[in-house]
User: What shape does this take?
Amino acid sequence: MDILQLIDRLEELFNEAKAIPLTHNVVVDEDRMLELIDQMRIAIPDEVKKAQTVVSQRDRVMAQAQEEANRTVSLAREKADQMAQKDMVVQEAQRRAEQILAQARADAEATRAEADNYVIETLMQLQDQLGRLSTQVSNGIHTVQEDQMRKGPGSSASPPVAEKISKKT
Assistant: This one.
C-alpha cells in the first residue's frame, strides 16, 4: 500500500475519533491505530527504497549529462582552436601573398626604369653617332665641292648634282 494512502487512513481514523470534552485530546481505536502504524512501518522502507532508487537514477543521469556536457565543451574548444589556427594560416598566407605582390611590383618598376634608361642611353649614343656621321658627310660634301671648284668648269661632276649637294647642306 502507498504511504500517502496510509496517511489518509490515519487522518480518517483521527477524524472519526471521539473528542474528550474540555481538552484537545481524542480517543481512537487502538487496534486500528496500531495496524496503520505497522502498515506504515512496512510501507516507509519501500517508499525510501523507491526514493533512493530515484535519487540514484537522477545522480546517474546527471553524471552522464555532465560527462556529455564536458565532452561537448572539449570538442567545441578543439574546433575553435582548429578554426583559429586555420584563420592564422590564412592571414599569414594573405600577408605573404601581399608581400610577394609588392616585391613583384617593385621588381617590375625597377626593370621598367632600367629598360627606359637603357633606351635613353642607346638613343643618345645613336644620336651622337648620327651627329658624327652627319658631320663627316657634310665635311665630305664640302671637300668634294671645294675640289670641284678648284678644278674649274671642266670637272667630272655635273652641275645639277653640285646644286643638289649644296641644297642639302
In short: The longest helix spans residues 30-151.
